[in-house]
């Protein structure tokens, strides 16, 4: 079963427990985000990726341009440890990490969470790749991925026990849309997957297919 199928199964399971009125609000919010045009404005294939520095889960600074020393970089933007779809994606990426590294590629995940919650994400999902904290969504904003969670969704999230301000260390309710990028050693985006629907993610097999085109592959 691939990631797309697993995500669909997860969605079916979660939605089965949601009342119809809550599902309607959540579906409308996703539809509105799709119609907002944010995806079309995000960085895409052929664009230059911005340089940045972010702390990892233990507070050490990771500089983006230094990740390119051995090969391309794969960046997965995720919403937070509270998102079951994100956790499923990260666990799946971990399973594929040995294959990704065979192509001398570096994998990093980025969310707006404060480092403590990034550490929780890393430990909970047993991740061995870098999990970076983009507090304030400064990097996600450079990629054109940031949106504000609609007010009508906030009480629903709170009902689910999701406290976004506590996770992110601010009260903006800003989040990145789901996105995965493969970036070559010149900093050029060679693969981009950006979706307003947070239940959809790039399958790692597609990442591998892109990495196979790099001359550094072994």
Automatic annotation (TrEMBL):
GO MF, any single term: thioredoxin peroxidase activity
Record Pfam families: AhpC-TSA
EC class name: oxidoreductase
Reaction catalysed by this enzyme: a hydroperoxide + [thioredoxin]-dithiol = an alcohol + [thioredoxin]-disulfide + H2O
SUPFAM superfamilies: Thioredoxin-like
One Gene Ontology term, aspect cellular component: cytoplasm
Keywords tagged on the record: Antioxidant, Disulfide bond, Oxidoreductase, Peroxidase, Redox-active center
A Gene Ontology biological process term: cell redox homeostasis
Domain Thioredoxin: residue ranges: 43-216
Keyword Protein transport included in the entry's annotation: no
Enzyme Commission numbers on file: 1.11.1.24
Function comment: Thiol-specific peroxidase that catalyzes the reduction of hydrogen peroxide and organic hydroperoxides to water and alcohols, respectively. Plays a role in cell protection against oxidative stress by detoxifying peroxides and as sensor of hydrogen peroxide-mediated signaling events.
Family named by the database record: Belongs to the peroxiredoxin family. BCP/PrxQ subfamily.
The protein's name: thioredoxin-dependent peroxiredoxin
Organism from which the protein derives: Lyngbya aestuarii BL J
């Amino acid at each position: 079963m691939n990631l797309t199928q697993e995500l669909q199964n997860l969605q079916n399971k979660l939605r089965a427990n949601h009342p119809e009125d809550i599902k309607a609000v959540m579906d409308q919010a996703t539809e509105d985000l799709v119609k907002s045009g944010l995806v079309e404005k995000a960085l895409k294939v052929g664009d230059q990726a911005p340089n940045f520095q972010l702390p990892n889960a233990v507070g050490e600074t990771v500089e983006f341009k230094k990740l390119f020393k051995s090969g391309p970089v794969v960046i997965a933007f995720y919403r937070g440890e509270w998102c079951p779809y994100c956790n499923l994606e990260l666990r799946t990426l971990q399973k594929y990490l040995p294959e990704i590294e065979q192509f001398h590629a570096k994998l990093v995940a980025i969310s707006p969470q404060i480092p403590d919650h990034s550490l929780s994400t890393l430990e909970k999902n047993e991740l061995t790749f870098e999990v970076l904290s983009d507090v304030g969504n400064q990097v996600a904003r450079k990629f054109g991925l940031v949106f504000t969670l609609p007010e009508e969704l906030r009480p629903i999230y709170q009902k689910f026990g999701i406290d976004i301000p506590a996770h992110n260390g601010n009260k903006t309710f800003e989040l990145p849309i789901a996105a995965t990028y493969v970036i070559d050693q010149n900093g050029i985006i060679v693969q981009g997957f950006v979706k307003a629907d947070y239940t959809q993610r790039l399958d790692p097999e597609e990442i591998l297919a892109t990495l196979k085109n790099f001359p550094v592959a072994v």
